[in-house]
Write a structure and sequence with these properties.
Elements: H1 2-12, H2 20-26, E1 32-36, E2 39-42, E3 47-50, H3 53-56, H4 65-78, H5 90-102, E4 107-113, H6 116-133, E5 141-145, H7 154-159, H8 163-166, E6 176-179, H9 200-207, E7 212-217, E8 220-221, E9 227-228, H10 233-243, E10 247-251, E11 275-278, E12 290-295, H11 296-302, H12 319-334, H13 337-358, E13 362-368, E14 371-376, H14 392-402, E15 405-406, E16 408-410, E17 418-421, H15 429-449
Parallel strand pairs: 3-15, 5-6, 5-7, 7-10, 10-11
Antiparallel strand pairs: 1-2, 2-3, 4-12, 8-9, 11-12, 13-14, 14-17, 16-17
Helix pairs in contact: 4-12, 5-12, 13-15, 14-15
The protein binds pyridoxal-5'-phosphate.
GO molecular function, one term: transaminase activity
Protein name: Aspartate aminotransferase family protein
Family: Belongs to the class-III pyridoxal-phosphate-dependent aminotransferase family.
Length: about 450
């Protein structure tokens, strides 16, 4: 039965973000069957710790019966309803009110989507639409940051700062510009090079503020390798945006709903963006849902429009997804999940200290809540990476997998060998220790491969 499934998978299933040729040769690495808490079991019966919450989304862990019940109850009552043409449904209304009530500042309305990419495309469209309504229709460009990940649709994919994604099949949204991330010295590079990505201020000056509608960033870059904004950075970016009438979009698709120990990533730095995109954690991955929150000024401007708003998805405001979203937030609040995240951050950091002391290549560990990562470097004191052929992050992630821990490597960028860790937010102290022990064994094995 398992062999048959593997054959069928190879034959008929085109997988996202996978090397197709190697997939056809090797088949799926794992076929998941069930999950409970922080663990998932495959069809062979092997159980793994899900140290990545799958795709940073299964925040309340696997097998949560309350979430399943919320879906079942809503499906049995009204599985689906349109939210087009003046229609609405109770769960979407209640979730809109709830999300707005926990969102920072004056974010005061939400447009529902079915996921993160749709949310970011929607954010770009709403930003451009807002400026049109304000009579400033030259403001069309979206400014994004290198190493960012914003999704796979054409616009979100173009905004993404990881080349493999933004150049896929020539996908391009023409009105996109990119600036260097906070991690790179803006002065490096040849400013006459057409591919030079300057820092944010440079790009605004070069393009002209009157051409830029919005800037998008993740408060902590996830897929790019868990890069944390330095203190003061987000506030400075917000001020720069305000100075230039550029809307600030915070992509909270990973950071939102408790991942960083605060409800939203920007809350760590007390910054209120003009627009915020969410997905993933809003339903803990149990249903496909995303949304774009806009501030009062944008909301009040949009609602004056007296023609059809030509944008929406069949599953915008899906009642079943919204019901699961409401239950997710209820559990986050009722079970004080954020407190657990903050406590487990401390445990994780203790584990990182231990690994830093023990392993000479282990370095640059970081954790904000349970969004965490570490790097492997040839010489951590002199900041020297391993040569490209070594691939230490992938090696360690493979070893962890052998020891039944799922993590994720972020080693697409030359000289950066990062391992990302993002376990479900319900993880406990013993389970953190289990993860650290496995990473310890994996790094020990890696050390032995280096002469
Ligand atoms: N934004 C961020 C920060 C993400 O990490 C992701 C997905 O990983 C997306 C957007 C895209 O979300 P989706 O895959 O649901 O379209």
């Amino acid at each position: 039965k398992i062999e048959k499934l593997i054959e069928l998978d190879k034959k008929h299933y085109l997988h996202p973000t996978t090397v197709p040729k190697s997939f056809i040769e090797n088949g799926p690495k794992i076929i998941f069957h069930e999950g409970q808490g922080i663990r998932v079991t495959d069809i062979k019966g092997d159980t793994y710790i899900d140290g990545a919450s799958m795709l940073w989304n299964v925040n309340l862990g696997h097998g949560n019966k309350e979430l399943a019940q919320a879906a079942y109850d809503q499906m049995s009552t009204l599985a689906y309803s349109s939210s087009f043409y003046g229609y609405s449904n109770e769960k979407a209304v209640r979730l809109a009110e709830k999300v707005v009530s926990i969102a920072p500042g004056d974010l005061s309305a939400i447009f529902f989507t079915s996921g993160g990419s749709e949310s970011n495309d929607t954010a770009f469209k709403l930003a451009r639409f807002y400026w049109d309504l304000k009579g400033r229709s030259t403001k069309k460009k979206i400014l994004s940051i290198s190493r960012s990940y914003h999704g796979a649709t054409v616009s979100a994919g173009t905004a993404t700062g990881i080349d493999a994604f933004h150049s896929f099949a020539g996908s391009r949204d023409a009105d996109m510009v990119r600036a260097k991330s906070h991690l790179t010295n803006c002065e490096l590079g040849d400013k006459n090079d057409p591919n030079y990505e300057g820092c944010i201020r440079d790009v605004i000056e070069k393009e002209g503020a009157e051409t830029i509608a919005a800037l998008i960033l993740e408060p902590i870059q996830g897929a790019g390798g868990v890069h944390v904004s330095p203190d003061g950075y987000l506030k400075a970016v917000k001020a720069l945006c305000e100075e230039n009438d550029i809307l600030m979009i915070s992509d909270e698709v990973i950071c939102g709903f408790g991942r960083t120990g605060k409800m939203f990533g920007v809350d760590n730095w007390d910054v209120v963006p003009d627009i915020m995109s969410v997905a993933k954690g809003i339903t803990s991955g149990y249903a496909q849902l995303g949304g774009v929150l806009v501030n009062k000024e944008i909301r009040d401007t949009i609602v004056q429009y007296d023609q059809i708003l030509g944008h929406g998805f069949t599953y915008s405001g899906h009642p079943t997804a919204c019901s699961v979203g409401l239950k997710t937030i209820e559990i986050l609040e009722r079970d004080n999940i954020l407190d657990n995240v903050n406590n487990m951050e401390k445990e994780l950091k203790k584990g990182f200290d231990y690994l830093t002391d023990k392993h000479r290549y282990f370095t640059k560990s970081r954790a904000v809540g349970l969004l965490a990562g570490f790097e492997l470097q040839q010489d951590r004191d002199l900041d020297v990476p391993f040569s490209e052929s070594v691939k230490p992050a992938s090696f360690v992630v493979d070893q962890c997998f052998k020891h039944k821990l799922i993590l994720r490597a972020a080693d697409f960028e030359k000289g950066k060998d990062i391992v990302a860790i993002a376990p479900p937010l319900i993880i406990n102290k013993e389970e953190i220790s289990e993860m650290i022990n496995i990473i310890d064994a994996a790094v020990t094995k890696f050390n032995k491969t280096i002469k």
